[in-house]
Specification:
It contains 7 helices and 7 strands. By secondary structure, the protein is of the alpha+beta class.
């Protein structure tokens, strides 16, 4: 990880008011559109010594996407400073002793953290529902299209005696196209299921107000469906639908 270099180019510098804190900080936008805020500005807002805390933070996962960026100071001079991605703020709030900040800042930190926890829980629930839906679909798809290629070839052989030469050529093209699509789609579906099989599973329990466990169940720790894999599956399914429409039309026209 190249944390000691200027890893991104700043295309715009502006300011923003941090939610919950009512405090203005510089914000730097880089070429990919991501937004970063100087750590020194966050430390100033919280009343923390930046040099002391950054030495410790640089060893934490918090720092994984941190980078040095050129900051235009109020004096007009440019200074290279450490910056955190805007999405890393909630993690920063848990990396220092809150007793070091003022009571008002502690209240603001609590509100910001509570909102982040609520948002994270909602996001996880949405991801989990999508994960389960996709998993059920993949199993249903593989069950539906299991061993489909051979029956298609048998259909072609049975129909060939009823068709003229040109129609036989067209039917063979359709069968070849369909078999290829089904093979690609089923292989991709299996790959996606294998990826899900490697997802860590955690045991979860629900307890009543007295602390008694009422229910236990398992959940994927990170119910992620890779966007690229999902997009590829959608493309293959769209082609498969198009093939089925052409194949059905051919059968209606020739039988």
């Amino acid at each position: 990880m190249q944390i000691d270099k200027l890893v991104k180019q700043v295309v715009q510098q502006s300011t923003m008011i941090l939610p919950h804190f009512d405090y203005e900080v510089p914000i730097l936008y880089v070429t990919d559109g991501a937004a970063y805020v100087p750590v020194i500005a966050l430390c100033e807002m919280l009343g923390l010594r930046a040099d002391r805390h950054m030495r410790r933070w640089r060893g934490l996962a918090l720092w994984a996407n941190a980078c040095k960026l050129p900051l235009r100071m109020k004096s007009g001079k440019t200074r290279t400073v450490w910056c955190l991605h805007r999405g890393a703020f909630p993690f920063l709030y848990g990396c220092f002793d809150w007793s070091l900040v003022s009571p008002e800042r502690r209240r603001q930190l609590r509100r910001a953290t509570d909102e982040w926890i609520e948002l994270s829980n909602h996001t996880y629930q949405v991801m989990q529902a999508h994960y389960k839906t996709m998993r059920r679909f993949l199993f249903a798809f593989l069950t539906t299209y299991a061993d489909t290629t051979l029956p298609l070839r048998l259909i072609a052989e049975e129909l060939s005696s009823l068709l003229d030469f040109d129609s036989c050529i067209k039917l063979d093209e359709l069968i070849t196209w369909g078999s290829s699509l089904i093979d690609q789609a089923t292989k991709h579906a299996r790959t996606m299921l294998l990826f899900q099989a490697g997802t860590p599973i955690v045991d979860v329990f629900k307890a009543d107000s007295d602390g008694n466990i009422q229910e236990t169940f398992s959940l994927p720790l990170l119910p992620v469906v890779p966007h690229a894999d999902e997009e590829k599956l959608i493309e293959l399914l769209e082609e498969l639908v198009e093939w089925e429409q052409d194949f059905t039309r051919f059968l209606k026209d020739h039988l």
